[in-house]
């Protein structure tokens, strides 16, 4: 119809755009939550976009606008985990005033978070590389993004340890984090029971040795 | 044919029995080796007796006399791993005479074995329990047997540490083993690269702090 002013696209209206954004976020999160359940039930290898769609109650075609494949959904879950982990550590830091207590609390919180969320630890460990069990094919970009997020988690711990006056705060952080993961794995696989020493006590003892009162 | 002496069963002849035993062991090992490759390619969830049979070049019916299911094959792999790990540790112990060197060598060998065999570490970690990723359903008996084998590995390390004059040798062993596993996992997932500190150096530094010259 020549001469008629073209109707303004609904997408140009900021209020409509906001509402569409909210719906988009909700739908995306529904897919992520469904994928978590599928990964827990079937493992990463057994999971597929088809199974995730069934669990989310949608078609596979409704997932692809949000994620190109299960690797991207997996990365999104890990990313949300790392955000929650960082908040958890910050909350624990806020509960203490003495620098030495804050330093220990940072590492204790890292341990406690994964102790309380074994599924998230399991999912994270699936990244195990090497000639071994087939890793999930995270793209270089996704891998770099996740490493960047993990770096900010570690930076919060490093800062707390440095503030308590320790030299080599980064090396102490690597040690503490590695030790926590090792204990959690030994505990999670049931292999720690051999020693009849509870993981929580072992972690607290270790922290006192790693970060002694100065 | 009444009156005829029944032919003596071939299985009553010890030489035949020995040879049948050898063949049985070879066939069993072929299944285990095929299963390793299938687990590495498809993960535990993706593996099936059918896939293992295809990889081994036999029928599924040829597997069931040896193993009731993939869990039993998985347990057999872990069992062989633990035997090799124990031998590796003993070989490293034999290279040193000073008790302090033997104590460190025991834990260093534990770390080095899994560093050299990431697939075996990955397979072992699949046992991760909790509300997380579905664990392989090892029966109570298989689980107890594996824990018993792992116990003998740890006992060798504990003995070396105790011989070096350390108190609490068991606690030091749990610490050292947990730390090694944590570093290997961080290294295997590529997450250690964030810190630009190589896992081997971190492990050796840790061992010197854990087991200082006395």
UniProtKB/TrEMBL annotation, chains A, B:
<keyword id="KW-0805">Transcription regulation</keyword>
<dbReference type="GO" id="GO:0003700">
    <property type="term" value="F:DNA-binding transcription factor activity"/>
</dbReference>
<feature type="DNA-binding region" description="H-T-H motif">
    <location>
        <begin position="48"/>
        <end position="67"/>
    </location>
</feature>
<dbReference type="GO" id="GO:0000976">
    <property type="term" value="F:transcription cis-regulatory region binding"/>
</dbReference>
<dbReference type="InterPro" id="IPR001647">
    <property type="entry name" value="HTH_TetR"/>
</dbReference>
<dbReference type="InterPro" id="IPR050109">
    <property type="entry name" value="HTH-type_TetR-like_transc_reg"/>
</dbReference>
<dbReference type="InterPro" id="IPR009057">
    <property type="entry name" value="Homeodomain-like_sf"/>
</dbReference>
<protein>
    <submittedName>
        <fullName>TetR/AcrR family transcriptional regulator</fullName>
    </submittedName>
</protein>
<keyword id="KW-0804">Transcription</keyword>
<dbReference type="Pfam" id="PF00440">
    <property type="entry name" value="TetR_N"/>
</dbReference>
<keyword id="KW-0238">DNA-binding</keyword>
<feature type="domain" description="HTH tetR-type">
    <location>
        <begin position="25"/>
        <end position="85"/>
    </location>
</feature>
